[in-house]
Design goal:
The structure is a homodimer. Chain A folds into two domains: 120 residues, ornithine cyclodeaminase, domain 1; 176 residues, NAD(P)-binding Rossmann-like Domain (Rossmann fold). In chain A, the strands form two sheets. Chain A has an eight-stranded parallel beta sheet with strand order 10-9-8-11-12-15-13-14, with helices on both faces. The two termini of chain A are 17 Å apart. The first copy, chain A, is globular and about 55 Å long. By secondary structure, the first copy, chain A, is α/β, with parallel strands linked by helices. Chains A and B meet through strand 3, strand 4, strand 5 and strand 6 of A and strand 3, strand 4, strand 5 and strand 6 of B.
Chain lengths: 316, 316
């Protein structure tokens, strides 16, 4: 029988497991070549505009494989519906039968994306953080901050987003979560004060420039997962001492790194993978003065590991 | 809320809908360019050996899109488990939410494949059939015959398969379904007596040769859906007056047609699509003496249309 799990059960499981550790395992398995993750499947829709992405695969030796479908329909908020949804199906690698359906409504994708941001900060941010800069005021802007709690003691936040209303709503909500939040009108302000900057927007032209960034800053860019979206001007990556990808192959085509490659600000040989740093086969930050950048585009191995961890809890 | 449907409900729905008409709509939509069906996603497993295929897409203007996962784990019968399983997920094209999960255990794939065989026979077999030849004795050998019932009055069957035990078991079961079944030790025998031959095996080297085939025969080859599986020697396609594909593009890479193309027995311009014949834009059989061949490799549009038809019944 295929077990079917609903969102409240999935959220309860998430609150009981170590999602950050699951993402560490995911990135390390990926960089060690132990993950089989074919290219992402994609469906595009015009009216209403939307997309569906299929990420799937398995880790060699595992007893399960996972197929995740995540959708984004960007007119949904006009109808008071969330833009993202989805479903995960976990199969037995012993017989091919579907063992579990996770009706997660896209939540596991949000959670694993936020947890990946925490992993990037854990390995790359400087030891002392006085202020966290968050670009964007949406779901990921909220979740990234929540998932950073276990990896830094800093509770001071600057937030920048397109409208003052959204910034102020974000500030109120995050203050209720125990942060001190200052709204700023430009990402430039944030560069002067924040040692950790997380970009979470859907921007299609870059809004963070190299001259904004001080020595000793780490930037995690997780907003762009397509060839066209772009948050960091290529010179930000050009000035960085360490440029990190979740997947070197995928970041050569999507996210921030491919823009910097095209602009000749970096070479592909300069890019290390987060899983290599976790596994100790590549250096991460080696001094408090370095600038580090991590480009997160999302890989199926994250969906695999978070599903396994959630299911292990649900089926305990 | 996502509705979750189990196999008994799905089977009941299938018995109430016109699956053959759904497949006619599917092939016509495909050949008219109204279907968006990206390349098939694939996962391969070594130990135990198995595969998972992801077929997905939608028909322009529909309010739904469909993602189907079908698995084949070929050691399962050693464990007294069926080799095939799977799941279908239907999404709203209005907002991207998953509207239904069909826990079909691979049954809808079997049903739509059998219904496609019936469509091929309906449009391509000669008017008078004295005997149906079935190659193979597995699940599809059974279903193909059952789905042929509405499209031909013929109930005389010859069956060929690797072992005499499996042929005799098949004969007993199909006689219980109202057929007169003769077991034969060679597909050559079948060529002399059968105006409609359906090949359903997993053969990797061809076992039907041109010299077996009499004028006025239609052959539907549905066993091969990969680049390597092969049931018909290329000369069977070379001698055919009409060579038909479910998908010209897919059959150029998988199934029977690509072997005949490689052997220079046919040219891609000779191949017509089943949906073109259904839609009246390509001729099918034009005389009782012609030899016709239809290569079915399975396209996502079949999964889309059968899911829509089943769901319309379940949600009535």
């Amino acid at each position: 029988m295929t077990a079917v799990w609903q969102l409240p059960q999935i959220k309860e499981a998430l609150s009981s497991i170590d999602t950050i550790a699951a993402m560490e395992r995911a990135f390390q398995a990926y960089s060690e070549g132990r993950a089989i993750v074919p290219p992402v499947g994609e469906l595009l829709f015009e009216n209403p505009p939307g997309d569906a992405h299929i990420k799937y695969g398995y880790i060699r030796g595992d007893d399960a494989f996972v197929i995740k479908i995540a959708t984004g329909f960007y007119d949904n908020p006009k109808k008071s519906l969330p833009p993202n949804s989805g479903i995960l199906v976990v199969f037995s690698a012993a017989n091919g039968f579907p063992s579990a359906v996770l009706l997660d409504e896209g939540y596991l994708t949000n959670a694993r994306t936020a947890a990946a941001g925490a992993v990037a900060a854990k390995y790359l941010a400087p030891a002392k953080i006085n202020c966290i800069g968050i670009c964007g005021t949406g779901m990921q802007a909220r979740l990234q901050l929540q998932y950073l709690k276990p990896v830094t003691a800093c509770r001071n936040v600057m937030v920048w987003g397109r409208s003052s209303e959204s910034r102020e709503r974000y500030a109120r909500e995050m203050e209720a979560e125990g942060f001190n939040v200052q709204c700023v009108a430009s990402p430039r302000t944030m560069g002067k004060s924040c040692e950790l900057i997380v970009t979470t927007t859907l921007a299609s032209s870059p809004y963070i420039e190299g001259l904004y960034i001080q020595p000793g800053t780490h930037v995690t860019a997780m907003g762009s997962d397509t060839p066209t979206k772009n948050e960091l001007r290529p010179d930000v990556l050009g000035m960085a001492d360490v440029v990190v990808a979740d997947s070197r192959a995928q970041c050569a085509e999507r996210g921030e790194i491919h823009h910097a490659l095209a602009a000749n600000e970096i070479e592909v040989g300069d890019v290390v993978e987060l899983g290599e740093i976790i596994g100790g086969t590549a250096p991460g930050r080696s001094s408090g003065e370095q600038v580090t950048v991590c480009d997160l585009t999302g890989v199926a191995v994250q969906d695999i590991e978070i599903s396994k961890a959630v299911l292990a809890h649900l089926q305990r």
